[in-house]
Design a protein that fits this description.
This protein is an alpha+beta fold. The protein has helices at residues 20-31, 56-62, 66-76; strands spanning 2-8, 35-42, 47-53, 85-90. It has a four-stranded antiparallel beta sheet with strand order 2-3-1-4. The chain is globular, with a radius of gyration of 13 Å.
Length: 92
């Protein structure tokens, strides 16, 4: 399994407005090549979205997809306190 972790700095007051996770979860799982899972992790200091993929190539390709660049990024942009931290991990 390969994980794409995106950490978002979103002020607690704006987190309800940042709920695009639910809006795009089904579309992500049904239309993105290699997508396996998507989970939202909420902490006091940030919000993390963990995406599971079948390969590093498909995780990287998602970051260039229209769903990510046109829909998700545009919806979140006004709510971000800093640039997202994007990392890809390969499970050992």
């Amino acid at each position: 399994m390969v994980y794409l972790q995106i950490t978002l700095r979103i002020a607690p007051v704006n987190r309800a407005a940042a709920a695009v996770y639910e809006k795009y979860k089904a579309i992500f799982l049904s239309s993105i090549t290699g997508a396996k899972t998507k989970e939202l992790l909420v902490r006091d200091e940030d919000v993390q979205v963990m995406h599971g993929f079948d390969s590093v190539e498909n995780a990287s390709a998602y970051l260039q997809s229209a769903l990510f660049t046109t829909d998700v990024v545009v919806a979140l942009q006004p709510l971000l306190g800093a640039a997202p931290d994007v990392r890809i991990y390969q499970a050992a």
